[in-house]
Every structure is written in structure tokens, then in C-alpha cells.
TrEMBL record:
PANTHER family: ATPASE H+-TRANSPORTING V1 SUBUNIT E1A-RELATED (PTHR45715)
Coiled-coil residue spans: none
GO CC aspect terms: proton-transporting two-sector ATPase complex, catalytic domain
Protein name per UniProt: V-ATPase V1 sector subunit E
UniProt GO MF annotations: proton-transporting ATPase activity, rotational mechanism
Pfam short name (any one): vATP-synt_E
Keyword Protein biosynthesis: no
Family: Belongs to the V-ATPase E subunit family.
Species classification: Eukaryota, Fungi, Fungi incertae sedis, Zoopagomycota, Kickxellomycotina
Record keywords, A-Z: Ion transport, Transport
InterPro entries linked: ATPase_E_C, ATPase_V1_Esu
Domain of life: Eukaryota
Amino acid sequence: MSAVSRPLNDEEVFSEMNKMVAFIRQEALEKAREIKVKAEEEFNIEKAKLVRQESINVEEQFRRKVKQAEVKQRILTSTLINRSRLELLRERQAMLDSVFADARAALAAVPDDRDAYAKLLVNLCVQALERLDDAAVTVRARRADAELVAAAVVEATELYRQRTSKTVRATVSDDALPDSVLGGVRVSALGDRIAVDNTLLARLTLSSDKMLPQLRNTLFGQSPNRKFFS
């Protein structure tokens, strides 16, 4: 026959309650530990994400700054190269200007030798007559050369007749050329619609244009960018 159950006394009830409280406390501690571990895991995951994202941002900023620095360096290099090239071009142009200034000064002294200059005027007149090939021409010259040019025209028309079997009426104009032409003549025909500028300045300009490539090559050497040569 089974024993008859009896109600718990106060001490037993208190003991059972303590067991229940201890169990609940243990469950709560384990749950708290789980929550703490999970929170730490989530924190570490978020922390790793933030660190990784920040690393990406830092790397991107670094690449951007490096790229900006490279662009600035290229711009600075290009600016310095262009500045040096322009300075070199200015120096070369100054040298060419000096050469042409010396040539101009030498031409300005040509009329000082009157005998040689008189022969030159005849040749310049004959050349102009042959190029114009007209029956009537007008000759202009500096006022200082009026006497020499008048004599040169007479001789030149005769030489022209001998060479071409043609006669030409050459008139020396009272409209003098400026002294800046350095000397020589300007011969025109058909009411000045066609003309040959055989002044010393014009001949210097023409010769300078033709000789400029050769002069550059002589003074500065061949350009590495030049592909074709005459």
C-alpha cells in the first residue's frame, strides 16, 4: 500500500523555491551569455565591415590623390617643356633677326660703291624688263639714286633690245621710292597693274624667305621632327 502524500512544510517549500530560483537564475545567466556572445559576434562583424569599408575609402582617396598628383605632374612637365620650347624659339628668332639685320646693314652700304652699284642697277633694270616683257614701263627709285638710275635705264633698254630684239620705252618716275627700300628699282607696266619689285629690300626679303630653311639648318642643325628634305 502506497504511502499517503503529505503537504510540504515551510522549510521544504522554501527549499523548492530556492531550487526554482537557482534554475531560473542559471537559465538567465546562460541566456545572457548567449546574448553577449551573439552581440560580440555581431559587433565584430559590423566592426570588420566598417574597417573594410574605411580601408576601401582610404584606398580610393589615396588612388584619387595619386591620380591628381600625376595629372598635376603631367601639366607641370608639359608647361615647363612648352616654356623651354618657347624660350628656345625666341632665342633662335633673335639670332635670325640679328643675321637679317646684319644683311640689311650690308645692303644699305651697297650704294656707297657707286661704280659697282651702277652696274647692279643696270642688271636689276634688265631683269625687270625681261620679266615684264612690255613695250612701255615706268621705273621708280630713291631720290638719291635718280642720276644713276637714269643712266642705268638707258643702258638697260639697249641691252634688252640686243637680247630680245624688242624695244621698250622706259620712263623714270618722279614719284620716288622711300629710302627704306635701301636701293634698287621698282619697274611697272600697264598702269602699274603689274610690277617687278627689284629694290634691295625686296630682294633681301625674297632671299631671306628662300634661304630661311637652310639658314636654320646651318645655325641650329636639322630638326628631329622634319620628315622631308628638299
